[in-house]
Write a structure and sequence with these properties.
The chain is mostly beta strands. The chain has 1 helix and 9 strands. It has one domain: ApaG domain (Immunoglobulin-like). The chain is 3% helix and 62% strand.
């Protein structure tokens, strides 16, 4: 579990490897990640856009930008949370994701809520045997 707190918003990410969606012999590794966004500020905050920077095990970078998350733009009151799960395919058994959400307070102020950097790692079956 990875957590970042910035501008009154806590973002917690829990990544996992999806063995049933992956085909290592074909260079296809699939990861899911669950994100919980909590508004810790005294004012409402609406998620407008997302930005992800995804780096695979070979250092190749992909940037993803878009409106909202999973088709939604949650509007969170003080103390409220929104949780969603999404996925990320990689051509390598490990990688790194990081990014931010562009959010807007009820007052109209736009701000950035950081998403913590987190690693995507295929479990090592050899290590699990020890």
């Amino acid at each position: 579990m990875y957590t970042a707190v910035s501008n009154g918003v806590r973002v917690t990410v829990t990544p996992r490897y999806l063995e049933e969606e992956s085909r290592p012999q074909a260079g296809h590794y699939f990861f899911a990640y669950t994100v919980e966004i909590t508004n810790m500020a005294p004012e409402r905050a609406k998620l407008l856009r997302r930005y992800w920077r995804i780096t695979d095990g070979h250092g190749r970078v992909q940037e993803v930008r878009g409106a909202g998350v999973v088709g939604e733009q949650p509007d969170l009151g003080p103390g409220e949370s929104f949780t969603y799960t999404s996925g990320c395919p990689l051509e390598t058994p490990s990688g790194l994701m990081e990014g931010h959400y562009e959010m807007q307070r009820a007052s109209g102020d736009v701000f950035i809520a950081d998403i913590p950097a987190f690693s995507l790692d295929m479990p090592d079956p050899k290590r699990a045997l020890h």
